[in-house]
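User: Fold this; tokens only.

Assistant: Input:
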Amino acid sequence: MKNSVLLYLLIIVWMASCKEPYYFLSPLNSTSQTYHTISLKSDSVKSSTYINGIVTLGGANQDGRDNVYSFNGNISRSNNLGHFQSYYELGITLGDYVIQQFSETNLTIPPTDNFFGAIGFNGGINLVVPIGNNGGEWRVIGVETSLQNEFGNYLSYRKSIKDSTNYGLIETSNWTTTIGGYSEIVWKLKNTNQVGYKISCGTALQNSNSYYGYQPHINPVYLLNTFHVTRKKVTGFAQLNISTHAASVQLGVNYRIGKRKKIS
């Protein structure tokens, strides 16, 4: 009987000592690598310029309890360089990070809306080989990176709570840098339309001094799956982003502007 009572007391103490971790990380860790259209080599195009718009809808934190909404607008340039292709872009992101109400024995977080934004650069390069009879291609392996300078209320909020020990992990840097690899297949149809799929994975690179809380620092990782369709000048895409303590869906349009520079 005494042993049973002691066991129950130990269980109660253990449960009381456990606290559910709460994560306040940058919303840009998994959302800054958006899809960029690159002209096919079979089109004999040296370079093209695009204007791009992307909407992001997602969840973050433990169990995705917080909501993330954002819009990214950018202008990008793609290049065909023999067996290689590249792209680079400059853009701006504006969004809202909605913290949902959360209560525990030792912690109560009220619901708040937090504006965030970022100005950033993206770029990538890949090895490409032709596939099929219609001019499709396999972008066998590529490397891409993103550098974002975050601003707004959500960044200020994270910095204001960095000294609290009640949270699981807090990221306070205004710089978000990601690097990853990708592979992509683009099929060119007989009517010259294109369909494709791209898979990407990588990590956000942050100094351990940018993290606070009682959880160990681990750089966030991401996995992206993108499906896209191109008709004439317009590419539409849907991208599923899964990352450390966050997941989202991105819907976007890339529109080619001006005349494409042909390979002479």
